[in-house]
Design goal:
Elements lengths: L5 H5 L3 H6 L5 H15 L6 E5 L5 H8 L3 E6 L2 H7 L7 E5 L11 E6 L10 H14 E12 L1 H6 L4 E6 L2 E10 L2 E10 L2 E10 L3 H11 L1 E7 L14 E8 L1
Parallel strand pairs: 1-2, 1-4, 2-3, 4-5
Antiparallel strand pairs: 5-11, 6-7, 7-8, 8-9, 10-11
Length: 244
């Protein structure tokens, strides 16, 4: 039997949602609003949110007048998201490495570092080719990733956090071209350890991957205010590409 990937275990765990329950929703929604204004998306445009998690950003997109579909590999996340569904918002469990609906969407979004999880470059490329396949001709793809240089310079090493009475011990380090986060804690008499691994992909890596996947890179932003990207000190790497 194949051992599950780290993201299959961790993202389906209730503890993932406990640890990250206090994320900055206002910053995220402000970014999405700014991005929508920049892209000048018409009302009713069909949008795919790849790796949508529990659907909070897909819901925000739908509330802006878009027709939104969210997909995610996590069964638990999609079960939660389905409670948000309405006429203009739907959710499905799906692996982003495979096309969801070919040539069905005007825009495909991949928000908040929901990429770089797979073991091989071939899988990364497969995921991007599938994103491209989901788009209509001339459609737009936005991939929001961390700036690898920025992250490496600011790794904290070790962090302790208490959420809902659970003491999380978090260690962060880089190894084999990835930033790795080990998350250990005890709860209800059991000890747990999970791991996050994200590839340290840079702008040059994405330029090659996007071109191979069938995209033309249009613009690169460096933060959630859509400032220009600077390799040394921009916190984000936000790529806007068009399907060839």
């Amino acid at each position: 039997m194949t051992k599950p990937e780290w993201f299959e275990n961790w993202f389906d765990s209730p503890y993932y949602h406990i640890l990250y329950k206090y994320r900055d929703e206002q910053e995220a929604e402000a970014f999405i609003n700014k991005l929508l204004a920049y892209l000048d998306i018409p009302a009713g445009a069909e949008v795919l949110d790849l790796a949508c998690g529990r659907g909070r950003y897909a819901l925000h997109l739908a509330n802006q007048g878009l027709q939104v579909t969210g997909v995610d590999l996590s069964e638990n996340s999609i079960a939660y998201a389905k409670a948000l569904e309405h006429e203009h918002l739907s959710f499905y469990r799906h692996d982003m490495r495979e096309p969801f609906q070919e040539a069905a969407f005007d825009y495909v979004f991949n928000f908040f570092t929901s990429f770089g999880y797979f073991k091989t470059r071939a899988e990364d490329l497969q995921a991007l080719r599938s994103a491209c396949a989901n788009l209509r001709a001339g459609g737009t793809f936005v991939l929001d990733f961390f700036n690898a240089n920025y992250v490496q310079q600011r790794l904290t090493g070790r962090e302790k956090k208490v959420v809902d009475g659970i003491h999380f011990d978090i260690q962060k380090y880089t190894a084999e071209g990835r930033v790795i986060k080990q998350i250990c804690f005890a709860h209800q008499g059991h000890t747990y350890c999970f791991e996050e691994q994200v590839k340290l992909l840079g702008k040059a890596d994405f330029e090659l991957l996007l071109a191979e996947a069938g995209f033309r890179l249009e613009t690169v932003f460096g933060d959630y205010q859509l400032a220009p990207f600077h390799p040394a000190d921009s916190p984000r790497l936000i790529l806007v590409a068009t399907k060839n």
